[in-house]
Amino acid sequence: MSRYRYIRPLGQGTSGQSYLAEDVQQNRKVVIKRFFHNHGQSKERETTFLQQLQHPAIPSLVDTFVENIDMVSRFHLVTEYVDGTSIQEQHVDPWSLATQLLPILTYLHDQNPPVIHRDIKPSNVFLKRQGQY
């Protein structure tokens, strides 16, 4: 039996597609990002980098795996699921958004080497059910 059961697609970008899934071993929801193209070393670097991040507002890396789909190996990243909605889907107070996002961005920028998130947009910023980003 596979460790993950796909529930539904969440979205698609230029590098891959994301799915809501269930980790049947841990009995929890996760997000699986299936990459369209395998770029071995860059995915290894991304995996190593994600393992090092420890911030309560950044979903943690759960697992990685390779799956053969239509005779092509596809790299997958599994991260924890954030129970919330994107700020694109709701009215957000700009001051609240800024005061909560700036410490997260500072944390990323303080990494060695500094991290620059290249895809910050309303659909990628989630407000947790508790009211935090």
Write the layout of secondary structure elements.
Blueprint: E1 4-12, E2 16-23, E3 28-35, H1 40-52, E4 61-69, E5 72-80, E6 84-86, H2 94-109, E7 126-128
Antiparallel strand pairs: 1-2, 2-3, 3-5, 4-5, 6-7
What would the keywords be for this entry?
133 residues, two-stranded antiparallel ribbon, five-stranded antiparallel β-sheet, single chain, 2 helices, alpha+beta
Task: Please explain how this structure is put together.
By secondary structure, this protein is of the alpha+beta class. It has two helices and seven strands; from the N terminus they run βββαβββαβ. The protein has helices at 40-52, 94-109; strands spanning 4-12, 16-23, 28-35, 61-69, 72-80, 84-86, 126-128. A five-stranded antiparallel beta sheet has the order 1-2-3-5-4, covered by helices on one side. The model has no long low-confidence stretch (mean pLDDT 86).
Give the overall shape. globular
Total count of helical runs of at least 4 residues = 2
Percentage of β-strand residues:
35-45%
pLDDT averaged residue by residue: 86
State the total count of DSSP E strands.
Answer: 7
Poorly predicted runs are: none
* Lateral strand order in the biggest sheet: 1-2-3-5-4
Based on CA atoms alone, the radius of gyration comes out at 16 Å
Please identify the structural class as seen in this structure: alpha+beta
Task: Provide the helix percentage.
Answer: 10-25%
The major sheet is characterized as: 5 strands, antiparallel
For the terminal residues, how far apart are their CA atoms?
Answer: 35 Å
Order of helices and strands: EEEHEEEHE
